[in-house]
Amino acid sequence: MDQMVTQAEVRDRVRAFAQEADLLLDAKTILGEGPYWHAEQQKLYYVDIAGEMFCRFDPITMQNEQFLVGKTVGAVVCDASDSDVVIVSTRDGFERYHMGTGTLTLLADPEADLLGNRFNDGKCDSKGRFFAGTMQHVEADVTGSLYVLDTDGQCRKLVDDVGVSNGIAWSLDEKQMYYIDSMKQTVTAFDYDVANGTLSNPQIIIDFHKEDGFPDGMTIDSEGMLWIAHWDGWQVSRWDPRTGTKLGAVYVPVAKASSCAFGGDDLMTLYITTASIGTSPSALALQPHAGGIFTYHPCVKGTTTNPYRRAVSKGESAS
């Protein structure tokens, strides 16, 4: 993907909204992504895909723990049954990672025959199913798909013909799932059956071709509006999914805004991940905090992120 716009161009447009994100942590990620807020721990999890790790950040103490996975990791979600365990989507599929021992356990590898692909962004629905999609490493061909890891451990393909699988969010009533394919520059709404985790009736609701950059990660607020990070677009924008209308934007002083999630004890803080990958030294001089974690405080409450909920059979230990 290559659709770079200059910082000055975007800043002049976005600053008309008089909103700008603030640096929280100069994390220096290569490809920061996938923010996940753990409400009980009051900590932010996020990944550095190219750095082959995920992090756990405490915004009160400013402690930033790093967990090296040793392979590309596209998304991280917590395990509801074990506080020492997370589920990650890696280049090899869905895996269980024990933070105490560093042990990886493969749960499902639906693309074992597609060595040029890797998993990218992912998220859990309210039932604890883990949705994550794939993309080609070199982003040349449309070889990706969207999968779901069910709570019983079974993996299903839901969508194929995907370029760069990215942001996922559900409507407040969970009757729709919103999904971003960055390569196609679209946000698609599917009818969603929360009872069995199936998708149907895809409809493109937002076309990004006239926007700055590419749509990347996203979240949804308590009013049902989508917040979308612009890769190579210097901003996070807010959209009404019912009309496809852009409602506003927050300027981010980094070109590659990659994703966002609400957090804080009141869910009134928007955490924004960014990336430095592919940025020239001269461009980095103008955005020294590329790869950092930024925050913005909107006048609207967010929604929670969900953990993976592995079904435990009778007599079986959750761990």
Helix content: under 10%
Q: Total domains, how many?
A: 1
The SS-based structural class is mainly beta
Mean pLDDT: 93
Number of helices: 2
- Share of residues in strands: over 45%
* Gyration radius from CA atoms, angstroms: 18 Å
Short characterization:
The relative contact order is 0.18. The protein is mainly β and 319 residues long.
Keywords:
mainly beta, Neuraminidase, four-stranded antiparallel β-sheet, 4% helix, 319 residues, 2 helices, single chain
Describe the 3D structure.
This protein has 319 residues and is mainly β. It has a single domain (7-296), classed as 6 Propeller (Neuraminidase). The chain is 4% helix and 50% strand. It contains 2 helices and 24 strands. It has a 4-stranded antiparallel sheet with strand order 1-24-23-22, with no helix packed on it. Strand 4 and strand 5 (64-68) form a beta hairpin. It is globular, with a radius of gyration of 18 Å. The termini are far apart. The model has no long low-confidence stretch (mean pLDDT 93).
What topology emerges from the helices and strands here?
Elements: H1 7-14, E1 22-25, E2 32-38, E3 43-48, E4 53-57, E5 64-68, E6 73-79, E7 82-90, E8 93-98, E9 104-108, E10 117-124, E11 130-136, E12 144-149, E13 155-162, E14 165-170, E15 176-181, E16 186-193, E17 198-207, E18 214-220, E19 226-231, E20 235-240, E21 245-251, E22 256-263, E23 269-275, H2 281-286, E24 293-296
